[in-house]
Design goal:
Length: about 350
């Protein structure tokens, strides 16, 4: 469908298309409204691009701050023989809390592995000169780098210090455990084999039990190994029993003799009681003798003082002599009585007067 043209179809211009006028070229000038819309669109795009750049920069800075990029740290170098399980960025923990991060792993000149750890200055308090570092690797899970400090009063760990790392790899112990289990099973098989020492011991125990349960000899035959020795042991036991009975009878007799001796010596009418009575009597006689001697001293003083009264002094001396002789006779009788009762008295019974 064509639009109606102003030129009638019968005109010569319509019949000849080449005779039509050329269309006018578009003007180079843009209307002001279109320019303002284009500038507004460019400004919005620039603002969006700047916001995206600012957002990316903030995210990067935040991640760096979270990762501790702006926290002052001190270096720590850990030396180990194998870096298996150690990766850059892993944490070094103390009591379960991260106090450092692995920044680099390199191979030292001696063939050992050197692990660079960045420790924040605020966390370096927990590291001392006596601290111990371990690298633990379990069967399941990643390796763990841990620090242990037993005495917090030790000098602090200096920046740039080198410390050895103690390894604890559980998976490395599995082959040794398998080998030990294999050796254990082999020893168990050797122990339970037919020609093993345990089997021989069990056979000996079985033989001993059979001898013990047999009617020939019983326990003695099982212990000695033959019936003759068992009979000898039984006879020895019988003689021992008889000897023990004889010793019991002898002990009973000795007890009777000791009781009698105890009664005769320590009884109410025993020798000790008589000796105590005699001693008491002797003490009384000695007291009388002492009094007599005192009287003699007084008389001698009177004799020495009064020489003129010789008759009276002679009378007193006669009475004193009679008292002394009476006391001496009592002493002689008491000594005779003691010698008669006391078994250990001397044989000489003579009393010599002064």
């Amino acid at each position: 469908m064509t639009e109606p043209s102003d030129t009638p179809p019968s005109s010569p211009q319509a019949a000849n298309p080449s005779a039509l006028p050329e269309p006018a070229a578009p003007s180079a000038a843009v209307p002001p409204a279109s320019q303002r819309a284009q500038r507004r669109l460019e400004l919005r795009a620039a603002m969006l691009l700047g916001f995206m750049m600012l957002l990316v920069t903030g995210a990067v800075l935040y991640l760096m701050w979270v990762r501790g990029a702006f926290i002052p740290t001190q270096p720590l170098y850990l030396i180990t023989d194998d870096s298996d399980g150690v990766v850059v960025g892993m944490d070094m923990t103390f009591s379960g809390f991260p106090i450092g991060r692995v920044s680099r792993i390199e191979l030292a000149d001696e063939g050992s592995v050197r692990i660079h750890v960045d420790v924040p200055i605020t966390e370096s308090y927990w590291l001392r000169s006596s601290s111990v570092f371990t690298l633990e690797k379990g069967i399941v899970g990643a390796a763990r780098l841990r620090a242990f400090t037993g005495i917090l009063d030790d000098p602090p760990l200096l920046p740039g210090s080198e410390r050895p790392v103690l390894r604890g790899d559980v998976s490395a112990e599995i082959p040794r455990m398998v080998g030990d289990a294999r050796d254990l099973l082999q020893n168990l098989n050797e122990l339970t084999s037919v020609d093993s020492s345990l089997s021989a011991s069990l056979g000996e125990v079985r033989t001993f039990t059979q001898r013990l349960n047999s009617a020939k000899g019983g326990l003695m035959a099982a212990v000695t190994g033959n019936e003759a020795d068992a009979r000898r042991v039984s006879e020895l036991l019988d003689r021992t029993n008889q000897l023990v009975k004889n010793l019991d009878s002898v002990a009973a007799r000795v007890d009777g003799v000791v009781k009698k001796a105890d009664q005769q010596v320590l009884g109410e009418t025993g020798l000790i009681t008589d000796a105590q009575t005699a001693v008491r009597q002797l003490n009384a006689l000695l007291q009388d003798t002492r009094q007599t001697v005192v009287k003699v001293d007084a008389v001698l003083k009177e004799v020495q003082g009064v020489a003129s009264n010789a008759n009276q002094a002679t009378t007193h001396l006669g009475d004193l002599r009679a008292d002394v002789e009476s006391s001496l006779r009592k002493i002689d009788a008491l000594i005779t009585e003691i010698n008669r009762k006391w078994p250990f008295a001397p044989q000489d019974k003579e009393v010599k007067l002064p």
